[in-house]
Amino acid sequence: MDPAHLSLAITRIADRHWHALHDDRVVGRGEVSSRPDGRRFLSIDAWHDAVFDQLADTMVADLPRPLYTVVDEADLDLLCQWERAGFAPRRREWEYVIPTDPRLTGLGSTPPPPGVTTLAVGEADEGPLRALDRAIRVEIAATVGWQEMPAEVLPGPPPPDPARYAVAACSGQYVGLVRVAPLPRQPRIGLIAVRSDLRRRGIARALLAEVLGSAHRRGIATASADVHQSNGAAIALFEGVGARRTGSNLELVLR
């Protein structure tokens, strides 16, 4: 089989799925998925460039734009394939691995700011957490916008699940939160946010100390996080506690 001269039949087998067939054998698969913010992300699994290109061309023709995909920046072959299909970089997320040991992070001897207390993951009351979530959503929508947020941070209902959040409280109100995906071997920090009028007081650092310290006590050595390349405050926060950059992902768009 000469991959460069394949005779393929590209079939949309379902609303979200495409197959590339050669001699009645599946040689490639494509899928589109919708993120909570409504954006459509494509993925293609194909052994040969020619299969990838024909699948991409068909999917792009079948779907309304804009379309998106995410690529490990180190995977140059896959990046080139999507660029041939007309996709271009839109944003970069740095991947970090963060130690949990307070002797490495320097967080063990740092108390929360005066008047601030932290509640561990699962300890927040749903009502105040929902009120803080709404306030932070308004701030996000008015500044960077939801298109710059991690995919798992939903732009609307359902309300936040206290089992995934640690919070900071001050004067009887919740003022900061951190969202944690409780993965067994390496918890993932998906979002740290503090009310805009209370930033630069060490609240985010206190939240990070709570989450990492809890993981360390459970015998978990590291956590992970993705940080937008332009988010200087988050980069400084993570690198300030010993986080190590391990890679990057590119979000590509076809408009």
Short description:
The protein is an alpha+beta fold. The chain is 26% helix and 36% strand.
Provide an overview of this structure.
The chain is an alpha+beta fold and 255 residues long. The chain has two domains: 3-91, 3-Layer(aba) Sandwich (Aminopeptidase); 95-248, Aminopeptidase. The chain has six helices and twelve strands. The chain has helices at residues 49-62, 76-84, 102-105, 126-142, 203-217, 232-239, and strands at 9-14, 17-22, 25-34, 40-46, 67-72, 88-99, 116-119, 165-170, 173-181, 188-194, 222-228, 244-254. Strands 1-2-3-4-5-12-6-11-10-9-8-7 form a twelve-stranded mixed β-sheet, sandwiched between helices. The protein starts with 8 loop residues before the first strand and ends with a strand.
How many angstroms separate the termini? 34 Å
Give the overall average pLDDT: 90
Strand order of the largest sheet: 1-2-3-4-5-12-6-11-10-9-8-7
Helix percent reads 25-40%
Specify the structural class: alpha+beta
Question: Which percent band covers the strand fraction?
Answer: 35-45%
What ranges have pLDDT less than 50 throughout 5 or more consecutive residues? none
CATH-level-2 architecture of the largest domain: 3-Layer(aba) Sandwich
Tell me, what's the shape?
A: elongated
The CATH topology of the largest domain is Aminopeptidase
- Topology pattern, helix = H, strand = E: EEEEHEHEHEHEEEHEHE
State the name of the first-level CATH class of the largest domain. Answer: Alpha Beta
Q: What is the count of DSSP helices, taking H or I runs of 4+ residues?
A: 6
How many domains? 2
- Give the CATH H-level superfamily of the largest domain: Gcn5-related N-acetyltransferase (GNAT)
Assembly classification: single chain
Radius of gyration: 22 Å
Largest sheet: 12 strands, mixed
Number of strands: 12
Organism: Luedemannella flava
Protein name: GNAT family N-acetyltransferase
Keywords: Acyltransferase, Transferase
Pfam families: Acetyltransf_1
